[in-house]
Amino acid sequence: MGLSLKARANPLSSASEQLRILSNSNGFLPFEQKMSAAGLFPLHATGITVFQINVGKLCNQTCAHCHVDAGPDRKEIMTRETAELCIRALAQTDIPNVDITGGAPELNPHFRWLVEQARALGRHVMDRCNLTVLLLNGQTDLPEFLARHEVEIIASLPYYRAAQTDAQRGEGVFEKSIEALRKLNALGYGKEGTGLLLNLIYNPVGAFLPPRQEAIERQFKRELEQKHGVVFNHLYTITNMPISRFLDFLMATENYEGYMERLLNAFNPIAATGVMCRYTISIGWDGTLYDCDFNQMLEMPTGFGAPQHIRDFDAARLHKRRIVTGNHCYGCTAGAGSTCGGSIT
Amino acid sequence: MEVYYHPADLGKFAEMGKGNRELWEKFQSYYSAVFAEGALTEREKALIALAVAHSVQCPYCIDAYTQACLEKGSNIEEMTEAVHVACAIRGGASLVHGVQMRNIAEKLSM
């Protein structure tokens, strides 16, 4: 298993180095100017319907495209105290969805407590799951726990074949992912009428944009059911952001300029109006507030006078906040658009 | 001009509209309609285009439709098979003309 950029002392483990590369807009129009030309700048939130908690960078995988630079060597993890601040803030609001991500969020020792508390508040809870975590020693009761609390599972599976999935996520990951999906199916996950939602995430295994969501969902459903007996509810497509390990891949393979040009040429103003930062608040492992998980990894907290830490959470001030943007945002506005819940248009 | 083919020229394709806008717009409209989902999916059409691109040996088309195939969800195995289809038809087209060769040879020979 590979090491994180940070463990390798790669310059791209630094947010400032990533921003330096991204801000060097030689040959392409800065995102703010593109948005201005479309009459969409500055971008403001329209409310908050998703309370996204990133509980840390610890993960049992080191995927080649990971925007978090997560891995087994990362130690940044949310403490119980910060998790309690999250639940306290959530309780003051009527935000309906709690989206728990990482790293592998399940590896945070307070993950189950967070799920129980959010469910006790009557909120819909989503777990962004890498699937293989469900097979780890000490986690084998996790599927039953998630089912008991009716947690929606949003699982990463970039392709329905082993070669592509393993190229991105690590040797043997596809086979383990299928084993985990079968376990979830056995509990009723992904099956009509059970209420247990199992949604998959597709992201391109390389420097290209995702297919049309409905089309690739049909392919995944056919292939996974026929070849592996696996079913799921929906497939969401996500565009790879040109940051962190995917940026490292783009630079190492001399694909950076071509990829940015691809994103820019595919800029879609309709997608830009529906970007997820407009209805999400993202909370980092240390309690810092961000407009999205990508801004979080670039260490760009909420700005323009909005609260910046969960202890200062103020829904009224955050609901209409101005969003902090940068050239990486082209990743969410290209083609059919990209959010944690799939394409926009 | 150092080379006849330059990758950046693919992005200049629309400049062909400068000589005759009406014909260019008709071509664009037809092209878009051809590649829209119909009885065949967009993915299937991109694979056909990739095979044809190899058959006509157009480097611009190979560049564009390799990317298009990936962006429609195809994988390298499927794309390789599509190229083999083009190869088989090109090779077969040569070979089947051997029948003509045999016919003529037979007529001329004692």
Instruction: Supply the helix-strand structural class of chain B.
Output: mainly alpha
| Average pLDDT number of chain A | 96
CATH fold-type name of chain A: TIM Barrel
The largest inter-chain interface, given as chain pair and residues per side, is: A-B, 14 and 12 residues
Biggest sheet statistics of chain B? none
Helix content of chain B: 55-70%
Order of helices and strands of chain A: HHEHEHEHEHHEHEHHHEEHHH
- Roughly how much helix do the residues of chain A carry, as a percent range? 25-40%
Q: Specify Rg of chain A, calculated over alpha carbons.
A: 19 Å
Low-pLDDT stretches of chain A are: none
Task: Tell me about this structure.
The complex is a heterodimer of chains A (345) and B (110). Chain A has 345 residues and is of the alpha/beta class. Chain A has one domain: TIM Barrel (Alpha-Beta Barrel). Helix content of chain A is 35%, strand content 10%. Chain A has 14 helices and eight strands. Chain A has helices spanning 15-23, 31-37, 80-91, 111-120, 142-148, 162-169, 173-186, 213-228, 244-252, 256-265, 269-273, 293-297, 315-319, 330-333, and strands at residues 50-54, 97-101, 124-129, 152-156, 198-202, 235-237, 280-283, 289-290. In chain A, strands 6-5-4-3-2-1-7-8 form an eight-stranded mixed sheet. Chain A is globular, with a radius of gyration of 19 Å. With 110 residues, chain B is an all-alpha fold. Chain B folds into two domains: 1-36, no CATH class; 42-110, AhpD-like. Helices cover 67% and strands 0% of the residues of chain B. Chain B has five helices and no strands. In chain B, helix 2 (42-55) runs antiparallel to helix 3 and helix 2 (42-55) packs across helix 4 (76-96). The N and C termini of chain B lie far apart (55 Å). Classes of the chains: A alpha/beta (345), B mainly alpha (110). At the A-B interface, helix 8 of A face helix 3 of B.
How would you describe this structure in keywords?
heterodimer; A: 345 residues; alpha/beta; TIM Barrel; 8-stranded mixed sheet; B: 110 residues; mainly alpha; AhpD-like; 2 domains; 5 helices; 0% strand
